[in-house]
Structures are given as structure tokens and as C-alpha cells.
Amino acid sequence: MAVLAILTVGGCREDDAGLPAASPSGEVSAPASPTPSAERSGPRALVDAPGAGGLEKLTGDGALADVPVDPGEMRDGMTLVTGAYGKPDGQGAPVLFEGVDHVPEDTNERREHLFRGMLEYIRWDPELGHPDAQPVEPGPLGGSVECLLASLSEDGNVICGWADEGTAAVALFEDSTLADAGKLFVGMRADLER
């Protein structure tokens, strides 16, 4: 039940074949979900996934109404994807996701920008310093995945981010641990990036 807002700068592209298409009746059909592969090369795109990592995108009252974190400069051809994802039973805090694709600059720098924005969103006190990012096994999509604990205890707000050849994204996991958030984030990524 999550709303995933997609803002495309520059209009439709021929390479949007992985996005749902509208039929003549106006219904949207979901594309087949290919299994991610480490052999795939070249830039990937973010997709409007109805679910990610076993979580459902939130709609209605639980949906995002605005882009909560400044994604950085959006250029022609880039896509911004945001959404809130939650458990089907409605238990627990939703996971806030934000990512961009077709990033023309260093995606590690864009991920750092998104990390800072998410820290501002949760009102992290800068006097406490910048939380250290810990590497996470990225799974079959490769690239670099990191999570940081923005809490003074062993659990709390965890922010995870990925950066690869053309995409950068972050997600906020409330009341989590680095290990749990990292595992869920990699699972979500498999559904959100193609």
C-alpha cells in the first residue's frame, strides 16, 4: 500500500520498456519481473514497483505526498522515484525510499547527497557527528551498498544507500539494526532497480 511517486524529467524515453504500460482500456499492466543478474552491464533504471523486499507500497493515508529529501539536481533523462513501503499487516514503521537513475555524475557523490538529506529529514543533530557508513554485501546487482546507524543506541534509525554505474538511492528504516536494514534494503533493491 505504498505510493511510489515517479517524476521523469525530459519526457518518455524509448528505454522505458521496463515500466508498466497502459492498455487501450486505460488499465496498467505490470511488466514481467526479470531476475537481477550480476552479468548485466550498463546503466540500470529505477521502476515503480508495487512491492519491494516483501513490503507493499503504501497508498491512501500512508502514501508520500511530497518528495521528503532533496534528490539533487535533476537533469534531462533522469528519473526520481520515491515511496513508502510497509508490511502487508500494517505493523511497524514504513520504509521511506528515494532514488534517482541515469545519474550523469559520480553516483557515490549523489548517494552522499541523499544520505545528508535523509539525516536532515530525521533531524539528526550535526553536533553528534556524521554517522559512519558500514559496507553491506550488495547482492547480485553489485555496486556499493552502505548503511549507517543514526542513533546513539544499537538500534534506531538506519539509513542505507546504494550507488552503481548509473543509479543512487537511499532508504530510512526506523527502529532497526544495521544488519536487518541492510538485508532488507538489498532485497528491496532487487525489486526497484532493473
UniProtKB/TrEMBL annotation:
Native species: Streptomyces caelestis
Region listing for Disordered, in residue ranges: 14-63
Entry protein name: Uncharacterized protein
